[in-house]
From TrEMBL:
This is ATP-binding cassette domain-containing protein. Keywords: ATP-binding, Nucleotide-binding, Transport. InterPro entries: AAA+_ATPase, ABC_transporter-like_ATP-bd, P-loop_NTPase. It comes from Mucilaginibacter sabulilitoris. Transmembrane segments: none annotated. Pfam families: ABC_tran. Belongs to the ABC transporter superfamily. GO terms for molecular function: ATP binding. Residues 3-229 form the ABC transporter domain.
Length: 236
């Protein structure tokens, strides 16, 4: 199992952000949905070893996030919602920097492969600050997959992109999901239908649904995903 989460809870002071959730994931694209404040980012930050949980366990490729964080980081790629990048770095330079952190063997070769895979070719000699938002997302994705992780955590990777840019990034996610386990957080239901084979809906820190898209529809009178989302999480 690539991801295993059991009875995971996170408290920020008195605030319960994640409330005893359990799920597991294997290769494919898992949509991670829920209203703002539901606990999605907190769960993702725990899985990527950015913050510790309050209780429960989480593991990535069999490695525990608390006991074996270095092994977890080796097996996971993370594109945070804010996609922090260095605007003054050139695209290739930034990938070289990340390759150095991961001590990647033959970095030039790997960087060339990733530039090709993420469609960064035409923009590879530009500074990140000169790129459009779509290309900046590609750089974020390229950085996240440079060390060829088995698991990818993508927090709203398509927010703010125009329809043409959306199509490119979605195709990339679909391709990556053929071999990797991807957790994709998004508010765009069309995107879920386009790329996800399974969906977890989280609401107020708890799991409200964990099913295939087809299963979810069958259990909810064949309603649209948007209607199902609203009925499970309230209209707030
Ligand atoms: P989502 O990603 O689903 O929008 P989050 O995981 O960001 O949700 O947040 C879940 C809850 O935890 C929210 O109520 C949010 O305000 C709270 N929260 C998130 N980060 C912090 C923090 N660093 N300190 C205090 N509360 C936080």
């Amino acid at each position: 199992m690539s991801i295993r989460v059991q009875a995971l809870t996170k408290l920020y002071g008195q605030q319960k952000a994640v409330d005893g959730i359990s799920f597991s994931a294997e290769p494919g694209v898992l949509g991670f949905l829920g209203p703002n404040g539901a606990g999605k980012s907190t769960t993702m930050k725990i899985l990527t070893c950015f913050i510790p949980q309050t209780s429960g366990t989480a593991s990535v490729c069999g490695f525990d996030v608390i006991a074996q964080p270095l092994d977890v980081r080796r097996h996971i790629g993370y594109l945070p919602e804010s996609n922090p990048l260095y605007p003054d770095m050139y695209v290739k330079e930034s990938l070289g920097f990340i390759a150095g952190i991961h001590k990647i063997h033959e970095p030039e070769k790997r960087i060339a492969t990733i530039i090709e895979q993420t469609g960064l070719g035409p923009e590879q000699h530009k500074k990140i600050g000169q790129l459009s938002k779509g290309y900046r997302q590609r750089v974020g994705l390229a950085q996240a997959i440079l060390h060829n992780p088995d698991v990818l955590i993508l927090d709203e990777p398509t927010s703010g992109l125009d329809p043409n840019q959306l199509i490119g990034i979605r195709q990339l996610i679909l391709d990556l999901g053929k071999t990797k386990t991807i957790i994709l957080s998004t508010h765009i239901m069309q995107e879920v239908e386009a790329v996800c084979n399974r969906v977890i809906i989280i609401n107020k820190g708890k799991i409200a649904a964990d099913d295939t898209l087809q299963g979810l529809r069958q259990k909810n009178n064949n309603n649209t995903l948007e209607q199902i989302f609203i009925s499970l999480t309230g209209s707030n």
